[in-house]
Design a protein that fits this description.
Layout lengths: L1 H4 L11 E5 L3 H12 L3 E6 L5 H5 L2 H19 L23 H25 L3 E10 L3 E6 L4 E4 L3 E4 L3 E3 L12 E3 L12 E5 L3 H12 L3 E5 L11 H14 L2 E3 L4 E6 L4 E5 L4 E4 L1 E4 L3 E3 L6 H4 L22 E3 L10 H15 L13 E4 L4 E6 L2 H5 L5 E7 L4 H5 L6 E7 L5 E8 L2 H4 L1 H8 L4 H5 L10 H15 L5
Parallel strand pairs: 1-2, 1-6, 2-3, 6-17, 8-15, 9-10, 9-15, 10-11
Antiparallel strand pairs: 3-4, 4-5, 7-16, 12-13, 13-14, 18-19, 19-22, 20-21, 21-22
Helix pairs in contact: 2-9, 4-5, 4-6
The chain binds flavin-adenine dinucleotide.
Amino acid sequence: MGTVTSQTSAKRFAPDRIAILGGGPGGYEAAMVAADAGAEVTIVEEKGMGGSAVLTDVVPSKTLIATADAMRRVNASTAFGVRFGEHSSDKYETEAWADFSKVNQRLMKLAHSQSRDIHASVEAAGVRIIAGRGRLVAPTNIEVTTEAGETTVLEADAVIIATGAHPRELGSAKPDGERILNWTQAYNLTEVPEHMIVVGSGVTGAEFASAYRRLGADVTLVSSRDQVLPGEDSDAASLLENSFARAGVKVASRSRAESVERTENGVKVTLTDGRVLDGSHCLMAVGGIPNTENIGLEEAGVETTESGHIRVDTVSRTTAAGVYAAGDCTGMMPLASVAAMQGRIAVAHMQGEAVKPLQLHRVASNVFTSPEIATVGVTQAQVDSGKYQADVVKLDLATNPRAKMMNIREGFVKIFSRKGSGTVIGAVVVAPRASELIFPLALAVTHKLHVDDVAGTFTVYPSLSGSLSEAARRLHLHVAEPNQS
Ligand SMILES: Cc1cc2nc3c(=O)[nH]c(=O)nc-3n(C[C@H](O)[C@H](O)[C@H](O)COP(=O)(O)OP(=O)(O)OC[C@H]3O[C@@H](n4cnc5c(N)ncnc54)[C@H](O)[C@@H]3O)c2cc1C
């Protein structure tokens, strides 16, 4: 981004006073490292420490998914010979049910306690936390309005903007918090929805569709594309679609929601192709909008893109000297882990340390559906388009002995290695807990390990990770015999 890199010759300074707008992962991780390095750090946060990540997004959704996973395991346990009294049968579903008010109480309690823990650790690190709404005042000051309506100006030598994002709304499908919901309102439900229509088949939509189905709701997923999860590995998305079909999730594909209205007892979702879906509730999962309006960016010379995201480079600099940005407000990659990394990089850069720029191709990410889909590095689409020359091995988990013991019938490991050199450059794992299995492959991608390094590392027998080394072993043949397809 030319406009940003024109700053490269700007004089480096190690700021004494750092002000951070937003206490999510982008803000609080930066605050911790800056305070550790001896800076005087202040965070301005209007909702609660941990940000949306902790209060409405990652923590509550993953806690809900943990309950859905517990239900899945209970319901699948008859296949292991487990019986629940005389009425149980070999049928896949048992009589387990989710006490939704308890489930939601638990997840909100967990989110608030996590927010308090973060508040306490950040404060213990010596960071000042101000509860209030802030806006940038040029060059690097923040004007704060507290809940009581008092306004003060916080003077700083450098600023990090980490204001995150909020759910996108469609004019014809306004959430009412009762029947038509966005993901921040989904935790108000006291009963499992009878029929949840989820609009949007990206990661958030797919995760909620999967969870609600496992929790016992009828689910219809409205997808504008041919396949759910358009940004993910197509083999993984196709496996998930089959798994959805088996679990009873209906997918209304190749259509968008034109409008969502409340009816007497539920909702009516009209699709652009004329179909009308009736449900009890509708969850809108159509993406996020960066929180970049009315925070003084333009006046301070901080450029935004057409989508409203703050323009940053790979060391988190914006177009204004001394102003950095991290997280969802930058639109780099909307993940808590990336936000935190951008925040840490911003601090390292402003303090003149040797900085490793953000490398998105090393980011490990996960879709918390059932099964999970974890990825790192180069993708199948990039290989197919010719951007990367790679050998690929895809190994189904069905033959893995541990998978058989665990009654895992679907899932795979896919590894990409650079053609000729055999370096691991990407991977996909589709399995229960794929989020935990991807780490060794992320390590291999980050440290440019050879497939033989992965294949030559002991794995536990029997284990799902045995399939990681087995896939790497099979890739060895491609390196040894380069002509093999
Ligand atoms: C349903 C859902 C599930 C997700 N699950 C995952 C996951 O499993 N893993 C993952 O890595 N990512 C996940 N994400 C993405 C993740 O939530 C975001 O990437 C992450 O929250 C970004 O962190 P952030 O610091 O940029 O912003 P946020 O976490 O949004 O924090 C920004 C903070 O800034 C505050 N703020 C905004 N404006 C102002 C202002 N003017 N003054 C004061 N304070 C202000 C807000 O109150 C907020 O607390 C999920 C997202 C969603 C929607």
